[in-house]
Amino acid sequence: MEYPNSTCPGYDLYAPNHSTKGVESEKRIAILIFDNFSLSEISSISEIFFLANQLRDDASIDDPFYSLRLFSSTGGGVASSCSMRLWTDSIDTPRLNDCDALFIAGGEGAQQAKADRHILKCLRGIAPKTRFVKAIGEGSEILVAADLSQQHGIYNFPEDVSFISPHTNALHISDQILTLDDPKGSIAAALSIVKHDRGSVIAREISERSLPGSWNKLSAVLDDQDDGRMRQKIDTAAHWICLNYSHPITISDAAQVATMSERNFLRRFKAQIGLTPSEYLLRVRLDASCLLLSDTDLPVDKIARHCGARSGDGLAKMFRKRLSISPTEYRLAGRRKTNDGAS
Questions:
Q1: Residues 228-342, CATH architecture
Q2: Rounded CA gap, 305 and 322, in Å?
């Protein structure tokens, strides 16, 4: 039995049956398969992105819509290990060059494919232009044969959990080993992309919907791998706010400094700092104005402009809302306290 992409559940054409709203955030996922590929692997990958689409907020272009397409060496029907045939496009199609992620499946056919010069040549041209390249099972041996490894700079997502040495054929998670025969191997590879795009909360929900209880085993590699990098991005943005608080600052400006989407930036900033970016900026401006009011004789209007409040009235509004006192009253109270201490 043979299923074309357009009718086989879970292997839909690009952006099927969804509105054009947010289409600019579509992410194309390519899966390269070979004869006798593991249908369970492909099903696991497809299900993760299907669930991610279900949880997508159509009102936000920051939530990518994932569309999947299958590819093979020559195109046409490819039989899985359970004899079900799926329809594929040829690896030579230009459409493969537009994909955001490429999964390379395993299976018996992958063993033969690693000696196919045409496939290796195509991969050498495609991989450097693809943001995520993830090999499952014997697919890792194809990458090795094509001389595509992390050492050669192909994997520009440093938390890539799917590049597996053909000698180990396993994912190391803390003190556990997650073998590529385990369906969680495919789930981990797909979830790493979703987590990168939409964060740990969504990745965890998808993980538990797909395979209840799997998060306990996957979180070590998915939850912790990029935390340091994300923390550094948020710290960089927070430091930039501290340096530029006297200028007009928007959420978009700070998100660009962090090289993150606004939606993801807002979520991660609040989780890490404990304040929204707007609240943090207000706190920095308030602290700076308090310091100038206490330590200088600068007029309130000048302090307001220096601290990004634009005017004395704007600064007064900020003080009354946050401290229930005017800037002038704050200055007088601070100086009375200093004088009382001196006497």
A1: Orthogonal Bundle (1.10)
A2: 18
